[in-house]
Amino acid sequence: MGDLHMEQFEHASNVDLLSTLAGKPAAQVLMEEYGGLTKLAQVSLTDLQLVKGVGRSRAAAIKSAFLLAQRLSHETVAERPLMDTPDRVADLLRERNRLNTVEVFQTILVNTRRRLIAVQTISQGTLDTILVHPREVFSAAIGHKAAAIILAHNHPSGDPQPSEADIKVTRDLARAGQLLHIEVLDHVILGQATTERPKDFVSLRELGYLSL
Q1: Is residue 79 part of a domain?
Q2: Which residues make beta-bridge pairs with 152?
Q3: Phi, psi of 110 (to 5 degrees)
Q4: What span, in angstroms and rounded, lies between the C-alpha atoms of 206 and 75?
């Protein structure tokens, strides 16, 4: 972009930055004419086009840059969802897993305040078995600098009660997490609600399987 390298942008002058949009000669004229960015931002698109060397496309680029900066200053960032209960975990994953015909093992990565960073799919298995290795589970967490993770998978049979394999995997991963200082907060298994079973999920922490 012009004579600037990316690492120089932070310390570039207003003329240099404006040059990337309008060219150096026009940028110098604009800054001399208006004296600063505030007055330049107030100039209409029509008046900008009258400046020598600017023209329609460059005038549009300049106005667009100022409008983007203005919108950025007013932009609010939505807070990431809180993943502090099994119900919230189930609400997050329910629709993602509804149509799965095989078990899909996922991890929810959270920060120190238990707010969502990302959802990672770790593996897909047969109807009854999934293969999960700590390397795949925690490499995603380390890469995203997650403070903790929540394990989750679906039971296509509809019954969310954990199998012996589910319990063993949960405990093995919790121990691995202790070594890495990445806490395994829970393991939520999604199924289907029935008349006798109003909840369509279970939490292995609530069932007592994460008490190491």
Answers
A1: no
A2: 106, 188
A3: -130, 160
A4: 39
Say which CATH number the domain at 13 has: 1.10.150.20
Residue 1 belongs to some domain of the structure: no
Range of the domain at 113: 86-203
Give buried/exposed letters for 53-69 (b at 16+ CB in 10 A, else e): ebeeebbeebbeeeeee
Cα-Cα-Cα-Cα dihedral sign, residues 192, 198, 203, 209: negative
Chain segment 133-192, per-residue pLDDT in tens:
899 999 999 999 999 999 999 999 999 999 999 999 999 999 999 999 999 999 999 999
Both tokens assigned to 158: 């509809």
148-154 vs 183-190, strand pairing mode: parallel
Give the residue among 148, 96, 110, 104 at the shortest CA–CA distance from 126. Answer: 104
Asked if 110 contacts 81 with a C-beta cutoff of 8 angstroms, the reply is no
- What percentage of the chain reaches a pLDDT higher than 90? 52
- Tell me, yes or no, whether 208 lies in a domain: no
Please give the residue that has the higher pLDDT: either 77 or 147. Answer: 147
Q: Are residues 104 and 69 in the same domain?
A: no
User: The tokens of 195 are what?
Assistant: 């008349």
Q: How many separate domains does the chain show?
A: 2
Give pTM, 2 decimals. Answer: 0.67
pLDDT at 2: 47
